[in-house]
Amino acid sequence: MIDVAFLPTLAQTVRHSSRRALAATALFTAALLAGCGTLPTIVPDMARTSSKPQLSGANGPLSAARSKEILAQLKGGNPEDNLLDRHLALEHAISSSPLSVGNKVTLLENGPRTYAAMLAAIAAARDHINMETYILEDDEAGEQFAAALIARQRAGVTVNLIRDSVGTIGTKAEFFQRLGDAGIKIVEFNPVSPLNAKAGWDVNQRDHRKLLVVDGRVAFLGGINISSVYSGGSFSRRGNKDNKSDRPWRDTDLMIEGPVVAEFQKLFIETWTKQKGDALAPRQYFPPLRSVGPDIVHAIGSTPDDPYSLMYATLISAIDNAEKEILLTNAYFVPDPQLLASLTSAVKRGVDVRLVLPGSTDSALVFNAGRSYYDALLSGGVKIYERRHALLHAKTALIDGVWSTVGSTNLDWRSFLHNQEVNAVVLGPAFGTQMRASFNDDVANSEEITLEAWRKRTLDWRLKEGFARLWQYWL
Prior knowledge:
The chain is α/β, with parallel strands linked by helices. The chain has a domain at 105-274: Endonuclease, Chain A, CATH 3.30.870.10. It has helices spanning 6-10, 21-33, 64-74, 83-94, 111-123, 140-154, 173-181, 261-274, 310-320, 337-348, 364-371, 374-379, 413-417, 429-444, 451-454, 459-469; strands at residues 55-57, 60-61, 99-109, 128-133, 158-164, 185-189, 206-207, 211-214, 218-222, 249-250, 252-257, 295-302, 325-330, 352-358, 383-387, 391-392, 395-399, 403-407, 419-427, 446-449. It has an 18-stranded mixed sheet that branches. A hairpin with a 3-residue loop joins β8 (211-214) and β9 (218-222). α4 (83-94) runs antiparallel to α9 (310-320). It starts with 5 loop residues before the first helix and ends in a 6-residue tail after the last helix.
């Protein structure tokens, strides 16, 4: 028997807004009715026996000589460093999708900078705009994006929008009606009401992606939703540390230009088609793309319809093949047994494993479920830092200084089993240097959690952790 007093607490598990209590109830009910999925067992040494990776450019697969030349440039004159070769082989072994060269990746941190870049790209659109988001609120930020999208639609640019039904459940219907009346095509992903579903009904499957593709030439992705909670920066110790509502949200996103944008475009169109959206207006969704930068990028989209989460397999394989360091930053961290074992096993191999996790949260159950694993992690030599003075929402990783990922995927059961997610893996030391600087900034604004101090925590925290852990699969 479920205690009804539990339901208000459960509402906190639907992230980012207390208005989503109805969504939490729907998800909880669906989870109880659904069968439990499982995570795949990843072979840790698969990259060691794989063939050399096939790189693709703007005009298709590259020759072996050209691939060798590009890799030599990325190594920065250190041919003895085989870490990049190793992680490229890993990416090649784990997925059949291309490793795309010739891309320019721009690291975006926090709401103001990310929104400014997104809105500038929208304003410059000439052919089409494809946008996919989990949360789109009818607040100041949402209205700003709505105005920008409507303006381009009225200027003759085709605008297509996918919005998750649960993520936008707190947004007034009139907000989307106004977008539709302006001519914007909208798909509601897995509607909460089965009466509105066009592609079957499974409310437990959510579209957690944050993806914007403009003119088929530039893509934005990462952790950021469309909400005014992102109105401030987060690399500051200012603010009321005792008031969660005063804390800025800390997020990380990417702006990507180059050949790999076509892969992200395919992911958007696949979702639109599966959800039986109206026929897309004829536009140049796949324009000719040229090489614009030095970055190798692997586009990764995961869906619950796949045999397993490709992002999960990629991450576990990268961790299991790490030689020097693993730097993870994640907002919702509830590790499954394999991820937990991979992290502690890496420490035993001599790898420096560090995690930046939230010091405060908008989801108490997830927060406490994740903390229930601190003892095992700390005992295994993993270093943990809790981010202060901001609500951490970033989902990033840097491994061996050459393998980076930014995207929407949390390190929890829901992201790996029930959500549609999208990530970019960027390979190369130059971008890795930027990621390390960002990670170090977060560490500087964090408090390190030691095993000795952790074991002195009070009984009430231990009880919260134990209770939350009972629900980890459904969070």
